[in-house]
UniProtKB/TrEMBL annotation:
This is Adenine nucleotide alpha hydrolase-like superfamily protein. The lineage of its organism: Eukaryota, Viridiplantae, Streptophyta, Embryophyta, Tracheophyta. It comes from the Eukaryota. InterPro entries: Rossmann-like_a/b/a_fold, Universal_stress_UspA, UspA. PANTHER family: ADENINE NUCLEOTIDE ALPHA HYDROLASES-LIKE SUPERFAMILY PROTEIN. It holds the Pfam family Usp.
Length: 158
């Protein structure tokens, strides 16, 4: 039987890693080879220009350094994703880094892999920050052509 594809969007945030761990725990951990899903993990790497968000004299000098940093982050995200999967004995996993805005990258990954589920972590931003940034999960929930699961990290009760 052809497995459905589950795409997990991953960035270098605690919420994002939690989303991956939660997904592995609930969909892959009992017997990974019997999971109905094939796992594809996608990291959207911002372009250096969008990360710096500035133009004009001086920007060009900074970009190569920013690019090196973004590549390091991308490598770290994939490394951590691989370790997390291996720890749960999930070995059949595809890891991708795609340059661009996470919103578009994740929706395009859904199309490309014909995914039936997209998983994103919730960043738990406040309303103001979310209004300014426009949340990736909100965007994907409206635009991805598949079921979108937003994994929220439980608030710790004090």
């Amino acid at each position: 039987m052809e497995k459905s594809v589950m795409v997990v969007g991953l960035d270098d945030s605690e919420h994002s890693y939690y989303g991956l761990e939660w997904t592995l725990e609930h969909f892959f951990s009992k017997s990974p080879e019997n999971s109905p899903f094939k796992l594809v993990i996608v990291h959207a790497k911002p372009s250096a220009t969008s990360a710096v968000g500035l133009a004009g004299p001086g920007a060009a000098d900074v970009l190569p350094y920013v690019e090196i940093d973004l590549k390091k982050i991308a490598a770290r995200v994939l490394e951590k994703a691989k370790e997390t999967c291996t720890a749960k004995s999930v070995n059949d996993v595809t890891l991708e880094v795609v340059e661009g805005d996470a919103r578009n990258v994740l929706c395009e990954a859904v199309e490309k892999h014909h995914a039936s589920v997209l998983v994103v972590g919730s960043h738990g931003y406040g309303a103001i920050k979310r209004a300014v940034l426009g949340s990736v999960s909100d965007y994907c929930a409206h635009h991805a052509h598949c079921t979108v699961m937003i994994v929220k990290k439980p608030k710790i009760k004090h």
